Amino acid sequence: MGLSRIFPLVSKLSKNFIRNRTLPTENPSGFLCNRTASFHRAIHDGLEKPQVLHDAGDKTPLLKNPKVSEDAEKICKILSTSSSNSPIESFLDGASVEASPTLVVEVLKKLSNAGVLALSFFRWAEKQKGFKHTTESYNALIEALGKIKQFKMMWELVNEMKIKGMLSKETFALISRRYARVKKVKEAIDAFEKMAKFGMKVEGSDFNRLIDTLSKSRQVERAQEVFDKMKKRRFEPDIKSYTILLEGWGQEQNFLRLNEVYREMKDEGFDADVVTYAILINAHCKAKKYDEAIDLFREMEAKNIKATPHIFCILINGLGSEKRLSEALEFFELNKASGFKPEAPTYNALVGSYCWSMRMQDAFRVVDEMRKCGIGPNARTYDIILHHLVKARRTEQAYSIFQQMSRDPGCEPTVSTYEIMVRMFCNEERMDMALQVWDQMKTRGVLPGMHMFATLINSLCHGNKLDDACKYFQEMLDAGIRPPAQLFSNLKQSLLDGGRKDVVISLGLKIDRLRKTPLVGLR
Questions:
Q1: Position 518 in a domain
Q2: Residue 441 phi/psi, 5° resolution?
Q3: Which residues pair with 231 in a beta bridge?
Q4: What is the per-residue pLDDT for 519?
Q5: What SS3 string covers 3-24?
Q6: What is the residue range of 498's domain?
Q7: Is 65 inside any structural domain?
Q8: pLDDT digit string, tens, across residues 74-121
Q9: 460 lies in a domain?
Q10: pTM for the full model?
Q11: Tell me, what DSSP letter sits at residue 166?
Q12: Cis before residue 377, ω within 30 degrees of 0?
């Protein structure tokens, strides 16, 4: 059913369900438009086009083995709803699921927000008859453990991989990224240096990956330092090296440093290509310098450099978010006239542009056009629409559309979708509905991250539902997620106000154990 056909149903919702409540005016999930564009990877590695703006939510899902997907969802449901006091082996052994490399990797990726469960599942899988882990399954576990800062366990896995001959450069890149994300820059660089110690030849592409990792972790200053220290002495910079730094300074909106890098790039004999222009245009859009972004587009055209669909996405997103809708539409039509095949990200950018101007019927019309073109919609399309409906305090419409997602093939709600809805009901102080959505999420085997836990727990504290707040705080700890200091402070104060000092002491001890006790192999 197209969204334009869903829309009329909204007015028929029971008035007893949600009563004309309003949402705060802040953006509850300010990530739906103007995504960071990582242009350089694919095009400078020799692919036909860069994989920018194609984040996980933007891609039309690839065809998967239905049995593998079904089994992966089944396992995640078991793990997310099983008792924390019981060993998961008993639940998994009764699931009648045969472990395969493809299945194990898919489950581990779904468990990326729950490192403790991921490790337990990993150890269960390796005990299954005839099963052997792959480099990809090790890397997926390392990613999950990195998110909960279990760095010691990550290095234990590296040693296992070395013994089995499974180490890859991707493994070290993952570890560097996890360190960089928590501002452990020295450790990130050390992880990079350890590649050579483990017998791997370090090449220019590896240096590029390191400065890219630092740059994307909001450490572009350190990335620049590494670049300046290592260039010429340890590696020869290429155009990708410079575009990485251009993108990093652009994300920081530091045009002084961006221009310095750009001048150095040209002095080294590298001419601006389509990737360079894409990064410059994106930087100007991020800084709301839309006229300058359009000037750069025209300059690029004058040099006979053909714009990619991703550049059109940037401009459509940027202009649309500024409610310069007519110009956004012009670039959409220009994209079509350029002969590119219809792509979901471009249409999603158009959907978002209409939403920014609250022309929702036009947004729904575009969704129907996506269906006719066979390019969607996808979960990302729904997330964009939901974000704007929530922002406009159109709660009933948002919930109605959310309910339709599961019935729309390829549009099943993701953790981002659930976060939008849980946050909406928390802001509405409708904790019954927030918990209902949360339970639906867990039933589907979708696991929440730290920010989503924090939203729910803080709201439960605000509503004086302290038993529930403690329950979900414990669930967070069981997943191995270290709570932010402010979250525990809020819960602690609420409990103390309620005369529950004993609970505060108990939770404090559990947090200390989580922080100080590294995970063991759980064999």
A1: yes
A2: -60, -50
A3: 235
A4: 59
A5: HHHHHHHHHHCCCCCCCCCCCC
A6: 449-523
A7: no
A8: 898 888 877 666 677 878 887 788 899 999 999 999 999 889 899 999
A9: yes
A10: 0.82
A11: -
A12: yes
